[in-house]
Amino acid sequence: MSIDEVLQALRGSWGPDTCAPEDVSDWRPDNPARGQCATTAVLLHDYFGGCLVRGEVRVDGRQVDFHWWNRFADGQVVDATIEQFAPHEVVVGGTDVERPTGPTRMDVQYELLASRVAALLADST
């Protein structure tokens, strides 16, 4: 399975119910990537390994959130949700981070997204 197939399945699976709780009010069908970065990065890690990368989201120089993306073993960087940000929201930095272990605040959203992606990928074979 290719990265493009998984990305397509991810994009077809995002919804307000897979969004980070603090971003639900900003989620819209015309910006489906909003609030999806952490679960999306972890799911891409499930399929392709590599490193999880976390940067800061800044507005007017002040940190307002974190943003997550992937760096694969071959050096390829994939930020599947960068389009979620408005021009005034700037992502800075980027540090490799360990994959979270144990329960997280996003477990429900992750499980829902993972099941939708798996179903779409199964249907495409």
Kindly describe this structure.
The structure is a single chain. This protein is α+β, with helices and mostly antiparallel strands. It has one domain. The protein has 3 helices and 4 strands, in the order ααββββα. The protein has helices spanning 3-11, 37-48, 107-123; strands spanning 51-59, 62-71, 77-78, 89-97. The chain has a 4-stranded antiparallel beta sheet with strand order 3-2-1-4, with helices on one face. Strand 2 (62-71) and strand 3 (77-78) form a beta hairpin. Helix 1 (3-11) packs antiparallel against helix 2 (37-48) and helix 1 crosses helix 3 (107-123). The longest helix is centred in the C-terminal third of the chain and has 17 residues, at 107-123. The mean pLDDT is 95.
Structural features:
single chain; about 120 residues; alpha+beta; 4-stranded antiparallel β-sheet; 3 helices; about 25% strand; globular
Shape summary:
globular
Unreliable spans: none
DSSP strand count:
4
Question: Please, how many helices?
Answer: 3
Fraction in beta strands: 15-25%
Task: Describe the structure in brief.
The protein is an alpha+beta fold and 125 residues long. It has helices spanning 3-11, 37-48, 107-123, and strands at 51-59, 62-71, 77-78, 89-97. The protein has one domain (3-123).
Give the arrangement of secondary structure elements.
Blueprint: H1 3-11, H2 37-48, E1 51-59, E2 62-71, E3 77-78, E4 89-97, H3 107-123
Antiparallel strand pairs: 1-2, 1-4, 2-3
InterPro entries: YunG-like
